[in-house]
Amino acid sequence: MKILGNVIDDQGRCKHYFKKQDTISIKFKCCGEYYPCYKCHEENSNHKIQPWKKEDFHEKAIFCGVCKSELTIHEYMNHTNCKHCHTLFNPNCNKHFHIYFETDNNNPTCTF
Ligand SMILES: [Zn+2]
Ligand SMILES: [Zn+2]
Ligand SMILES: [Zn+2]
């Protein structure tokens, strides 16, 4: 799997998010490319992020950098760890869900 952006190790950490639990990369709906985070996408592409729609949540768009398997968006959002290797997802990522995925409670005042 090719991960674009500013990856700093072979488990999918990038220069923005490099804590122990930051091992997930996300495929972006807009370009179909995997990036470790939205900042990497912002700095390395020339277009706006298009969030995944709810009807697309069965698509495999999450890449576990530890066991190198792809998960669907559902499998990622509804679990706290990878179903294959049980690596914990970073719980703080859900603060940014509305950037990547269509949600019911988008918060337009959030400035990250
Ligand atoms: Zn894109
Ligand atoms: Zn990044
Ligand atoms: Zn895994």
UniProtKB/TrEMBL annotation:
SUPFAM superfamilies in UniProt: CHY zinc finger-like
UniProt-listed GO biological process terms: protein import into mitochondrial intermembrane space
Keyword Transmembrane helix among record annotations: no
Keyword Lipid biosynthesis: no
Pfam families named in the record: zf-CHY
A GO term for molecular function: zinc ion binding
Record-linked InterPro entries: Mito_Tim_assembly_helper, UCP017292, Znf_CHY, Znf_CHY_sf
PROSITE patterns: ZF_CHY
Residues of the CHY-type domain: 7-87
Keywords: Metal-binding, Zinc, Zinc-finger
Name of the protein described by the UniProt record: CHY-type domain-containing protein
